[in-house]
TrEMBL record:
Taxon lineage: Eukaryota, Metazoa, Chordata, Craniata, Vertebrata
Key words of the record: Metal-binding, Zinc, Zinc-finger
Protein's UniProt name: Si:dkey-219e21.4
Keyword presence, Aminoacyl-tRNA synthetase: no
A Pfam match: SPRY
Organism annotation: Cyprinus carpio (Common carp)
Length: 228
């Protein structure tokens, strides 16, 4: 609530300017609170996430001691595995989340299109239908950036999220899970974009997806090292 009575002696133009400045101050304080909250989460709940190579599509190469993913245009000569995604360019983390609170971040600034989120281990690995796509089924949740659009997905439903000149394509994505409370938060550059509430029934795994090696731009994601 703004104290309009303080500005009664100003002309209309000055009144607008003061109100805008006041709004900017509130926005700035809100941003500081968001940063403080994310730092608090980072310190207390940061988790060591590495990629499970057995789950990676053949065109995904794992780098940086299990923290980096790079999509190439060629298949790697590796054996088939029932855990591996055979059609979609996806990968899962190696450690299951079964309880507690966990936070991790992934750097996506070198990736032109991506999806980051969580999935049950029972997520389908074969084919290209909705059962295997992150966020297009009951077994996964994802924050997705493609063709300049940012969207949050679960069970084939999505919410469009704002990408403007002031808030451009994100460079880093954070995921915060409260397993027992059934909450999943996705944050981009300290702004919480999506809050999913669900009663989790299986262990959760960090999940990643590239869209196509033919897309213009780079195809690399890196899990951030949050240790102090």
């Amino acid at each position: 609530v703004f104290p309009f009575h303080k500005y009664s002696g100003f002309c209309g133009r000055s009144l607008v300017q003061i109100l805008i400045d006041d709004l900017k101050q509130h926005a700035f304080l809100g941003s500081l609170q968001s940063v403080a909250n994310m730092l608090y989460i980072n310190v207390l709940y940061s988790s060591n996430v590495v990629i499970d190579k057995q789950t990676c599509h053949k065109q995904i190469k794992v780098t940086s001691e299990g923290r980096g993913l790079c999509l190439s245009s060629e298949d790697r000569c590796i054996p088939n595995d029932p855990l591996r995604f055979d059609q979609l360019y996806c990968a899962l983390g190696s450690v299951a989340i079964k309880s507690g609170q966990h936070y991790w971040e992934v750097d996506v600034h070198c990736c032109s299109s991506w999806a980051v989120g969580m999935a049950y281990g029972s997520l389908q690995r074969r084919g290209r239908d909705k059962g295997a796509k992150l966020g297009r089924n009951r077994s996964s949740w994802s924050l997705e950036f493609q063709d300049g659009h940012l969207t949050a997905w679960h069970n084939d439903r999505h919410v469009a999220l704002p990408v403007t000149a002031a808030r451009a394509a994100p460079n880093r994505v954070g995921v915060f899970v409260k397993y027992q409370k059934g909450r999943l938060f996705s944050a981009v550059q300290t702004a919480v974009f999506d809050r999913a509430h669900h009663q989790f029934t299986e262990p959760l795994y960090p999940a990643f997806r590239f869209f196509s090696p033919k897309d213009k731009g780079h195809h690399h994601m890196e899990i951030c090292n949050l240790s102090l």
